[in-house]
UniProtKB/TrEMBL annotation:
Positions with biased composition (Polar residues): 101-112, 197-220
Gene3D superfamilies in the record: 1.10.287.1490
Sequence ranges of Basic and acidic residues compositional bias: 82-92, 181-196
Keywords, in A-Z order: Coiled coil
PANTHER family: CENTROMERE PROTEIN F (PTHR18874:SF10), CMF/LEK/CENP CELL DIVISION-RELATED (PTHR18874)
GO annotation, cellular component aspect: chromosome, centromeric region; nucleus; spindle pole
Protein's UniProt name: Uncharacterized protein
Region (Disordered) location: 82-125, 158-229, 291-312
Molecular function in Gene Ontology: dynein complex binding; microtubule binding
Taxonomic path: Eukaryota, Fungi, Dikarya, Ascomycota, Pezizomycotina
């Protein structure tokens, strides 16, 4: 594959008085000779297409026209991207066989003499290595994101004019490569950047090898070499490249074989280790699962026992708290009832005082007896209605009282009877006032005094009774906590003691029976000896033998009965010991429950105290915050009000100055100080 003929384009300005501008696109990329000047380029989007539009370029008119020309100029031939191997080969041919393209280039001659010729001559003075290394550097820079500059030559000095010149180039200088424009990039399908980057990097590595470096140095020392020398160099480079590829493939195959062998060995070792590890893991898991299940079962049994004990203790505590709450409620109810009775007694005493005042008024108004009797009748009628209302209220209170409060009920009944007596007395007084006012007045005074004394005595009695009830309630509260449990435990203990006494009596009876059987056995033996000594006949001996056998069986039965009684006695003793241990355990649990109850109550009291302290602190803080905020707002309000006053004064002063001011007289408002 031979490179396409290159074409050199030149342009001059259409205006003679405007300077010519040219652009060196090689300066945009990194230098091939100095690696220290390489700058990091931003990563380019792999899916983007390198496009430069003319409206994005700004500058002088002639510079802009020059740029638009080079962007819009369409080259005669456009190289399409190929595969990786073909591209490497074509790039290598373009780098090495650059002298061959000189003979195929078109001859161009400048239309104007000096400027274009000097520029073209400057472009021809570059070396072959500069062209090749510049192209390689742009291939590497293509990976950093400047892909559209890869096909542009290193020196653009010869392209300063858009006009086409025709002159022959010397055969000793390297030819210029085809330069695709931006428009060509828009029209040409673009190959993925990975292949281009790979080909550029491969060419760069090939050119940087020692053989190629030596050949490049030789080529740099002989810039006047012909195209034949370039072909030989290309063939040598191709042979070196093929040799290098062969060595790389051999090393790659050996590395792959070694890697496969190592991978298989490692997999075998890994499988063996994994199998042994799985066996050990399964055995350990089985062992620990058994231990875990056993410990879990033991833990569950213990937890069930503890939970049952906890539930029983909680039920006991709940029962005690319920009883305590009931007693507290009853105490509060009694206190409320006593307070209501005290209020009623105070009301009655006030009523008595009013009645006494009424009697004194009757004494002072004896002459107006009829009027006084009418007034007294009305007052007594009102008192009667009030007493009836109070009587009905007392009846309602009496209905709400519990059946156990017999003492308070009796007091209420006494009060009701007293109310009835008062009603009858008032009626009698009303009837007697019409006939005997003096006697009625005296009698009323005496009755009121006596009733007052009675009420005071009853009030004292009720207070004493209240104190007694409070003391009794305190005593009940102190003894109520363990009374119920103590009674139940004492009942159990008494039952167990009764059972123990019964077992003891049975044991004593069994021992007495054993001693009685032993005495009977001794008596029978003595009798048998006496009868054996006195009776010598055969019939008597036979009879005695039979009786002896019967006695032996009886003795055996009695002995077995004694043994059974002993066994039962031992069993009863063991059960008695068990019951005693249960009783002691129950007492210990009862003490613990009481201690827990006390500790719980202490915690509740401490929590209540903490809650109250926290509430007080929060209330204090909130009040302080509110006070601070109110003070701040008041301060702001005062500041705003003062500013408003100042603004009003200034406004009125300005208004007066505009309306009336300007003279020597004191300033005033128009409506008041205007001069007519």
């Amino acid at each position: 594959m031979s490179p396409a003929p290159a074409m050199t384009l030149s342009r001059r300005s259409s205006l003679s008085n405007i300077s010519d501008y040219s652009i060196n696109l090689d300066a945009l990329g990194p230098s091939s000779k100095d690696d220290s000047s390489l700058l990091p380029l931003p990563q380019e989007n792999s899916h983007a297409i390198d496009v430069i539009h003319s409206e994005d370029i700004d500058g002088p008119t002639d510079f802009t026209q020059n740029m638009e020309y080079w962007m819009n100029a369409k080259l005669p031939n456009v190289v399409k991207p190929t595969k990786l191997d073909g591209e490497r080969k074509s790039d290598l041919e373009e780098y090495v066989d650059s002298d061959e393209s000189l003979s195929q280039g078109q001859d161009v001659t400048p239309r104007q003499g000096t400027e274009e010729g000097q520029v073209g001559q400057g472009a021809q003075d570059h070396d072959v290595d500069q062209s090749m290394m510049s192209d390689a550097s742009f291939g590497n820079a293509n990976e950093g994101g400047i892909s559209f500059l890869s096909g542009i030559p290193e020196d653009e000095a010869s392209l300063a004019s858009p006009q086409t010149v025709e002159r022959s180039l010397p055969a000793t200088h390297p030819s210029f490569r085809r330069q695709p424009t931006v428009k060509d990039y828009d029209d040409t399908p673009i190959k993925p950047r990975e292949s281009r980057s790979a080909s550029s990097s491969a060419i760069g590595e090939t050119l940087r090898s020692p053989e190629n470096s030596l050949k490049m140095n030789v080529q740099r020392e002989q810039p006047e070499e012909t195209s034949y020398g370039g072909k030989n160099t290309m063939e040598a480079l191709e042979e070196a490249l093929e040799k290098l590829r062969t060595e790389i493939s051999d090393v790659k195959s050996q590395s792959e074989a070694e890697l496969t062998r190592l991978r298989q060995t490692h997999e075998l070792q890994l499988n063996d280790a994994r199998t042994s590890h799985d066996r050990e893991l399964k055995s350990v898991e089985t062992t620990w699962k058994g231990r875990l299940s056993q410990s879990k079962a033991e833990h569950e049994s213990k937890m069930s026992i503890f939970q049952s004990q906890k539930d029983s203790q909680a039920q006991k505590i709940t029962l005690l708290e319920t009883k305590l709450n009931t007693a507290t409620t009853a105490q509060n109810t009694k206190a409320n009832q006593i307070a209501s009775l005290e209020k009623q007694l105070s009301a009655r005493s006030s009523e008595l005082q009013e009645s006494k005042n009424d009697v004194s008024s009757l004494e002072r108004e004896l002459d107006t007896l009829a009027e006084t009797s009418r007034v007294e009748r009305e007052e007594l009628e009102e008192d009667r209605r009030e007493l009836e209302d109070k009587y009905h209220r007392l009846q309602d209170d009496h209905r709400n009282l519990s059946s156990g409060q017999t003492t308070v009920h009796n007091r209420i009944e006494d009060l009701e009877t007293q109310v009835e007596l008062l009603k009858s007395r008032h009626e009698m007084e009303i009837s007697c006032l019409k006939a005997k006012s003096d006697e009625a007045t005296a009698k009323a005074c005496e009755d009121f005094e006596s009733e007052k004394t009675d009420f005071e005595l009853k009030l004292d009695a009720l207070k004493e009774e209240r104190d007694a009830l409070l003391a009794e309630l305190a005593l009940l509260e102190s003894n109520h906590a363990g009374k119920q449990e103590d009674t139940e435990r004492e009942a159990q203990i008494s039952a167990l003691q009764k059972e123990r006494d019964t077992l003891g009596r049975q044991y004593v009876d069994a021992q007495a029976q054993c001693s009685r059987i032993n005495t009977e056995l001794n008596t029978v033996r003595q009798r048998h000896v006496k009868e054996a000594q006195t009776v010598q006949t055969s019939d008597t001996i036979i009879h005695l033998k039979s009786s002896n056998e019967a006695l032996r069986t009886t003795i055996t039965e009695l002995q077995s009965a004694v043994d059974a009684a002993k066994i039962s006695n031992d069993i009863l003793r063991a059960s008695l010991c068990d019951h005693q241990s249960i009783i002691s355990t129950s007492r210990t649990e009862l003490d613990l429950a009481r201690q827990e109850t006390e500790s719980t109550r202490a915690e509740i009291r401490s929590l209540r105290a903490d809650f109250e302290a926290v509430n007080l602190a929060v209330d204090k803080r909130v009040s302080e915050m509110i006070k601070t905020r109110e003070a701040e707002w008041m301060k702001r309000f005062e500041t705003i009000r003062s500013e408003k006053g100042i603004m009003g004064k200034v406004l009125m002063r300005e208004w007066g100055s505009k309306e009336v001011g300007g003279g020597d007289d004191p300033q005033g408002y128009r409506y008041k100080f205007v001069r007519k």
